[in-house]
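Re: weekly structure request thread

Next one in the queue (860 aa):
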Amino acid sequence: MKQYNTIKAKHPDALLLFRVGDFYETFGEDAVKAAQILGIVLTHRNNGGDKTELAGFPHHSLNTYLPKLVRAGQRVAICDQLEDPKQTKSIVKRGVTELVTPGVALNDDILNAKSNNFLAAIHFGRKKIGVSFLDISTGEFLISQGSVEQVDKLLQNFTPNEVLVSKKHKKDFQLSFGNHLHTFFLEDWIYQEDYANESLTNHFKTNSLNGFGVSNLDEGIIASGAILHYLSETQHRQLQHISNLQRIAEEEYVWMDRFTIRNLELQHSTNLDAVTLLQVIDHTISPMGGRLLKRWLALPLKSQEKINRRLEIVDFLKNNVRVLEKIRHWIKQMGDLERLISKVATGKISPKEVVQLKNSLEAVLPIKTLTANVNHSEINNFSSQLHSCEKLRIKIKEMLNEEAPTVISKGKTIADGYSTELDELRNMAFSGKDYLDKMLERETEATGITSLKIASNNVFGYYIEVRNTHKDKVPENWIRKQTLVSAERYITEELKEYEAKILGAEERIQILEQKLFEQLLVWMQEYITQVQQNAHLIAQLDCLCGFAQLAITNTYSKPLITKDTSLEITEGRHPVIEKQLPLGESYITNDVILNRDEQQLIMITGPNMSGKSAILRQTALIVLLAQMGSFVPAKEAKIGLVDKIFTRVGASDNISMGESTFMVEMNETASILNNLSERSLVLLDEIGRGTSTYDGISIAWAIAEYLHEHPSRAKTLFATHYHELNEMINTFNRIKNYNVAVKELKDNVLFLRKLIAGGSEHSFGIHVAKMAGMPQQVIAKANKVLKKLEKSHSQEEQKEKLNTLENEMQLSFFNLDDPLLEEIKEEILHLDIDTLTPVEALMKLNEIKRLLSKKKSASS
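Done, posted below.
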């Protein structure tokens, strides 16, 4: 217990698995936690008079229990016996051999094959925040820095399983990024520039970080340094597979804020049974491909050249199905190349996995040949970059048994014929059957006992069994070992010697196999980079083949990517909704045309359930798929490169932060209006509905006007319930009204889901309530109230018109001041010039100019 307490003191915040004989034991609070998480028995024992809780499990069950602890968010310190108990008379030396945390794991049972397991670190600099991501299981090491919004978006894209933060900035982190991420707080001194630079240059064995193109990312470097420090703290020092530090070049990718990523349900959904875009488009068949596809989805491209390169390959594969099928067949034969080679680097690979690595590399060869022989230069590039790794494959083949076990101690790992010494030992240990048969023959002849038997068991080892009827014929030099009811068991000198020889051989076989296997692993280290490159190329091929398969299965078409800013989608479909339609029902397609000259903002009115939101979302998803390099669910799509996609869809309370639905809505909308660009695509759904009707209409109108007048002229789809906004086309020439068609039947309403020109007048909210199964009396009452309100509303309007007429007559008679000039004077007096941006000033001027030109045209 003294030894346990010393080790536990070094790792107070980890659950300590303490190896005692054949068990991993936990004590005290750790035992209570372990018993609860693992569902194992919690017992007590008295250690020096103290009652201590105790819970344990057999050491060979580690791979069953460890994942459960880590998934429950525990950091687990594995404390092993560092010497053979047979070799010591005192207490066995023990020490922590590995610290497994949610973000640092190499165990397949903890990892998800098609997802990265990122460990992130955040550094709060003076002006910017540094961020770094590392997946120890694949060797990917990424770095970036930027504003809170940028870092927040990256955290959402990469979904790290653990985030390292300085203790000093605990509050800052929670304020900026909330508390839904699993965090671990490090000492402040770790976040120092000199220390980080030293850690990184020592690791990469370079003089500086210039070669990685990251030397100007000071805050990011500090975050990356914190990650390396944490790895050494968690006993991970064999990190040869982490050979590159890569900058996340955000300027190369489409900007989507975290609201957009959430609203479009790209990878995750807040609804339990919802299908995400990733689930629909993921036709990858390798773990590497699955992980890369997630990256492509989170970071769509902005470069026309790069997008077209992907589209050309997908087009070729779609039209050459035999090539596509062959490539996919061979990718299917592969294991997780990326994670297997990482296990080689960290020394955590099993003999069985080394054979799997060799077989995976053998499946690369037919792909190398296939991609060399097609008539497509981009695909030929894959062939020239893939490594055949011939020496590595040959070495593994001649050295390891094809049926090598998972655990080296479980038997035949090294192939026959590789080591003469090993073959001799095996001969001695396993050719014993003949030797024992001969001995039995000799002894039977010498004693005249016909029923002699030679066998062995775990307690007594080898023995000769004599039935009681022949007891008197036993020679004097035999030593009695055991008495049974009907027989006696004896041992002879010869048998004793033979047993020692066999046991010695088995032990030596195990030591020799271990030694030879370790030599192989050291030799394999040279091939880490080559295998990683193969893994990366196969992942790309897998994604592109997946896109081709997706296009074939779902009849997608090739989009045309242009440099202009217009967007033309013909017969577009929603990729997720169409996959969920009942059998035989086809998706009702829609056309969307947006540009910055004539049709910049489309105002879509129409009732609930008619499909307004679906049209908004499918437009964004089609653009997104096209810029990932995939074909799209449309008859045709001409897409002028988009650099930012903004969405404001649906209501989402943030009650934990004390914000109402309306506040969240306004926050998200403000973020959009402050970040517009010429190539932005803006999708606004039901803006202003979280407040009173007139407030809502006023806010929605002002937002639409801002978007129309803003110099960027961002392409916008604006879905709304407020039919009053249809009036905007009279004033703003680039706003166009559309509605989602509805057919009114006698007592019902039929949603046609087709987008047609012109505004709509009705909401059909009561019809929707009826469809939802609202009680009949509620529906009847609602209809009565509606008629009453419509009647009083029209009376009020008439009254208002009369009042206005009287006032106008009075004003023109008594008041020589122009009311329009009064209004303009009020506008100017209420302007806060200190906070006004140049863009807002120009827009305000434009508004005043428009008021005056209206007045002029009215009077003329």
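The two ends are 99 Å apart (CA to CA). Residues 2-100 form a domain with the MutS, DNA mismatch repair protein, domain I fold (CATH 3.40.1170.10).
Next request, please.
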